[in-house]
Amino acid sequence: MQEPPLVPRARLQGNRPAIREGERVFTYAHLLDASARVAATLLHGRPDLAEARIAFMAPAGFVYAAVQWGIWCAGGIAIPLSVHATPPELDHALGDSDAEAVVVSREYLSHVEGQGRSVILADEAMRGETAPLPEITADRRAMILYTSALAARYGARTR
Questions:
Q1: Is the pTM above the cut of 0.85?
Q2: At what angle do helices 6-13 and 62-73 cross, to 10 degrees?
Q3: Per-residue pLDDT tens for 87-110?
C-alpha cells in the first residue's frame, strides 16, 4: 500500500517524541493514530477523497499536525486557515478553494460557522473510528496556501 511519504518515516520513529506542547509529549505513534482517525472521519465511507479540498483551523501543535496529516492520508488537499484571519479573508479562502469541509478546533468554531461548509470538530475526528485508507501516490496535490498578500488585499492587519 502506498502512503504519503511522511507516514512510513513516522512509523519508524514509533514512541519517540514528535511534538511537545508544554509538559505534554506526543509520540509519532500518537500522531499516526490521530491522523488515521481524522482521515477515516473525512472519508465517511468513501474510498478516497480524490483531492477534495478540506480546510482546517487549529492552533499550532499536535491537533494541527494530526488534522493536516489526516487530510493527506485520506487523499485530500489541505487548506490551512489562519487563526488570525478576518471574516473577509476566511470567506475568500473558503470560496476560492471550494473547500467541501472545514475541520476546526473547538475554540475556533465560531470563526467558521455559517460558511456553508460541513464543519467537523477536530477533537471528535481524532477520537473517531479507523478505516482502510486509500493509496496515495507521490503525484497527488497536497496543499493550498493563502498568504499574507491576501491579508493586505482584504484589509487585514499584518503582524
A1: yes
A2: 130
A3: 999 999 999 999 999 999 999 999
CA-to-CA separations, 107 to 7, 11, 86, 124, in angstroms, rounded: 28, 30, 16, 13
Look up residue 109 and give its three cell numbers: 468554531
pLDDT per position as a tens digit, 23-37: 999 999 999 999 999
Dihedral sign (CA 130, 133, 139, 141):
negative
Instruction: Find residue 101's DSSP bridge partners.
Output: 54, 118
C-alpha to C-alpha distance for 65 and 76, rounded to whole angstroms: 14
Helix (H) or strand (E) run with residue 96 in it: helix 87-97
For the beta carbon of residue 27, count every other beta carbon within 10 angstroms: 16
DSSP reduced 3-state for 59? coil
Q: 124-135 burial, b if ≥16 CB within 10 A, otherwise e? A: ebbebeebebbe
Q: Between the CA of residue 59 and those of 18, 30, 46, 53, 116, what are the distances in Å?
A: 16, 18, 28, 20, 22
